[in-house]
Amino acid sequence: MATQAAEQFKLRHATLDDIPAVVELRNICSMEETGKPETDEARMRTRWCGPNFDPGRQVWLVQSPEGQLVGYGGVWHMPPHVRYWTWCTVHPDFRGQGIGTRLLNVTEDYCHQNLSQAPDGTRVIMMRGANKTNPYAPDLFPANGYAQIRYDWFMVIDLNGVLPEPTWADGVRVRTFVPERDLEAVYDADNEFFKDHWGYIPTPREDGLKQWQHWIENDPDFDPDVWFLAVTGEGDDEQIVGISLCAPKMAEDADMAYVESLAVRREFRRKGIGLALLHHTFQAFAQRGNARVALHVDAQSLTGATRLYERAGMHVEREYHDYEKELRAGQDLSTQTLSE
Q: By the 8 A CB rule, do 63 and 37 touch?
């Protein structure tokens, strides 16, 4: 398509009515990179309607003079507002015309305008990710002040053949999530377990619980039967020592389940609980008819999660690069190393 002057493209905020067009654009770009769709309208609606997010302030759309959606960018952040996740997508036919840079600029302007929400003296950053195969990210992001700091893996296992039986440590059993009883306990466990995850930032409990409640009530794929809890004790003495919180399918593949969160309480690690949770998860999805299970993991995991997943039979299918730009220097509230 012929190059058009940048000023001919219209920039505006989004409304919920834009969801179908945004999903189409995201999936056009995803198909180019991975050969698979990335999202669907139900998932995007759940995200856009959630607490701490307003598409009328935090999403920008770029339209061609003919009205075609050719660019999409946004910002997401939670209290304490020290990390802003940002993203931008440009239609393959309209790249090289300054649209990506324009979206980077408006998202950064938004972050600067909201710096006062972060506690005084704290470090504030913007982060964004890109598929390793993205040919534009290595030039576009550094040119706009971003540095690549980390990389993540998308790992998959095919559920064919004989799957290993889970072996549980003494006194540990597994059960499924009961929403009306377990929400707060599982939320607290997830936060405690992930304090050892690189980049973890504590969110005020009330805000985090509202986010979880929204997803449970509105995510069309939420199924409590695939949220697996490793526990010890009975009744009032029950303690959650491990979690495998899953979704039964992905937008890119209805036959592929997804592990959204897998973690073990620190004092219960190195007892085989993580591996047992994975084996239990794989068997449960095989029995439900899923063909594959996937997850994302920090490829430089502080707790050695990648070794666990490889031992469980998972392999790396895709790699993503994480980019960071510092907006304000100060005390870093995120986990950077394992504390004793």
A: no
Say if residues 183 and 216 touch (Cβ distance below 8 Å). Answer: yes
| Closest-CA residue to 8 (of 55, 72, 52, 68) | 68
| All structural domains of the chain with their residue ranges | 6-118, 156-319
Superfamily assignment of 156-319 in CATH?
Answer: Gcn5-related N-acetyltransferase (GNAT) (3.40.630.30)
Phi, psi of 206 (to 5 degrees): -60, -40
Q: Does residue 1 carry a pLDDT above 60?
A: no
**pLDDT classification of 3: cutoffs 50, 70, 90:** low
- For the whole model, what pTM was predicted? 0.95
pLDDT of residue 338: 86
Is CATH 1.10.3720.10 what the domain over 6-118 is classified as, yes or no? no
Upstream peptide bond of 80 is cis (omega within 30 degrees of 0): yes
Higher pLDDT, 45 or 6: 45
